[in-house]
Write a structure and sequence with these properties.
- This protein has a two-stranded antiparallel sheet.
- By secondary structure, it is mostly helical.
- It has seven helices and two strands; from the N terminus they run ββααααααα.
- It comes from Klebsiella michiganensis.
- This is Magnesium transporter.
- Keywords: Magnesium, Membrane, Transmembrane, Transmembrane helix, Transport.
Length: 224
């Protein structure tokens, strides 16, 4: 078809040419990609956009994420004594929070796209959680074994190795639950999940993942 009719409330209001449809689809995909990167969509092509305009598009979300990320340092400060008692715990912090964020981003990307296509709705939350937790359990076991191997290669003691492996399992499963619930909840309250989900989930898992890590360490090492 060379023309596609545009209908509103059963009345013909116009028509679109093939090139116009392709342009609209391209704009829609571009906007979604920009929103998933926690930035507002650009009105002009990238090379025609000024640094000032880019600053306005990016700085708002970066400031919000900066404030949200600040609680990660509060978590580290709270568990300062545990870190001083077992300094080897610090070696694995980037690995653990990075794994949680990466796992959450994978789930969010898949889920947000499925929601956009109408494949997943709020009523499917239970099914989504069961599917993602089941999948993440297999991933968690794999990552737990990888963490065990990594700690062993570094010559870390058995207690720390066990703590790291168990934390990887817990963070991966926790990430699955959070990443399944938040996009659907945001959609329900009228917030575009493509904008908030991935950066917000990564930030949330950073802090909560550290709490999980240090709580497990306190239990196994008998720290206060």
């Amino acid at each position: 078809l060379d023309l596609v009719p545009v209908v509103e409330k059963g009345e013909l209001v116009g028509c679109l040419m093939e090139k116009e449809i392709a342009h609209l689809l391209e704009d829609d995909v571009t906007e979604d990609a920009q929103r998933q990167g926690a930035t507002l969509p650009l009105e002009k092509p990238y090379l025609e956009t000024s640094p000032w305009a880019l600053w306005k598009k990016r700085s708002v979300w970066l400031l919000l994420l900066f404030v949200a990320e600040a609680y990660t340092s509060s978590v580290l400060q709270h568990f300062e004594e545990a870190l001083e008692s077992a300094i080897a715990l610090a070696f694995f912090i980037p690995l653990l929070i990075g794994t949680g964020g990466n796992s959450g981003t994978q789930i969010t990307s898949t889920l947000v796209r499925s929601m956009a296509l109408g494949e997943v709705r709020l009523r499917d939350m239970g099914r989504v959680i069961r599917k993602e937790v089941s999948t993440s359990l297999l991933i968690a076991i794999t990552l737990g074994l990888a963490g065990c191997l990594r700690a062993w290669m570094m010559g870390i003691g058995m207690e720390i190795t066990l703590i790291v492996s168990l934390t990887l399992v817990c963070i991966t499963l926790w990430s699955a639950v959070v990443s399944s619930v938040i996009p659907l909840t945001l959609k329900r309250i009228g917030i575009d999940p493509a904008v908030v989900s991935a950066p917000f989930i990564a930030t949330l898992i950073d802090g909560t993942g550290l709490i999980i890590y240090f709580k497990i360490a306190q239990y196994f090492l008998g720290l206060n």
